[in-house]
Known about the structure:
Layout: E1 6-24, E2 30-49, E3 57-60, H1 72-80, E4 89-94, H2 105-121, H3 127-137, H4 141-146, E5 149-153, E6 158-162, E7 169-174, H5 181-190, H6 199-205, H7 211-217, E8 219-220, H8 229-240, E9 246-247, E10 254-258, H9 261-270, E11 276-281, E12 288-290, E13 296-298
Parallel strand pairs: 1-8, 3-4
Antiparallel strand pairs: 1-2, 1-12, 2-4, 2-5, 5-6, 7-10, 7-11, 9-10, 12-13
Helix pairs in contact: 1-2, 1-3, 6-7
This protein binds adenosine-5'-triphosphate (ATP).
Adenosine-5'-triphosphate binds next to α1 and α2.
Amino acid sequence: MIQEQQIILRTPAKVNLSLDITGRRADGYHTLSSVFQAIDCYDTLTIRRIENDAPMTLCCQAEGVPCDSRNLVYRAAQRLLQAEEPRGIAMTLEKNIPSQAGMGGGSSDCAAALLGIRALLGLSVSDKALSELAASLGADVPFFLCGGTALAEGIGEILTPITDVPERILVVAKGREGVSTPEGYRKLDRLEEPLPMYTKAVLDALHTTQPQRLFAACGNAFDAVTNLREIRKIRLVMSSCGVKPVLSGSGAAVFGGCETMTQAAHLEQLLQGMDFVRICKTIPYGVQQYGTDGIWHSL
Ligand code: ATP
């Protein structure tokens, strides 16, 4: 049998169509109820076999992204290969998903590393064991093993996939500033009024044939406590076009649902000054592998 020498993966970003804070565990972690949605904005991870005893390398040119064990891709390899200094593979990561955005870039890359290394090296690790490993690497990582649309509960690790969700058009934008997730949670804890809840309405509207009904239902508890200058600007621009701005994760990316590509293109134009702006479509899959037939396939 011919052994594959390399595997090319695309790793999608996500937005949270809703994010409700439902409580706080004894260990201090907040529990949430959130509808995760994968979108067609991808990083690319290439994994190559090298000599069995050659030390693993990770190369990434993106500013501010570490190439050592601080990178979730590196950590995924350490855990899967059960070695502090893994050997036999070289990885290259091309970033398109902005960091500190709430779009799950690092988590998605991590899921891709788990799936990609298992496939390339033919490791006999069950799906269940891989999911458990994913959850131990980060609460958002298991979502990207399947992607699509899913209800996340607990601290994000209890996932219920949701099928047959119609494709939607979103404009996603982010300024230069990032947000601190712990600071966001501290601000939420200090709020006196009850937090708004969006998840139930989003679940009810997910399969609607009227996109506006879904977009109106979307919302995020962090919206109330996240007020950076660039986020305010994005909100203003989206609202002026009749698009409801919603934070993704704990920010700093903001997305808005659009009914038509024309509306999305207009909004994208107005947001050109931002560090990141992209028209995205929702997708029903997670990490994918580039096949010899030139088509992307789910693993
Ligand atoms: P989330 O949506 O899960 O809140 P995020 O928006 O904070 O994620 P990430 O892309 O996951 O954004 O990166 C956050 C930080 O994690 C970065 O500043 C970087 O130092 C570190 N990091 C670790 N692994 C990666 C990776 N593979 N890609 C990008 N950043 C990574």
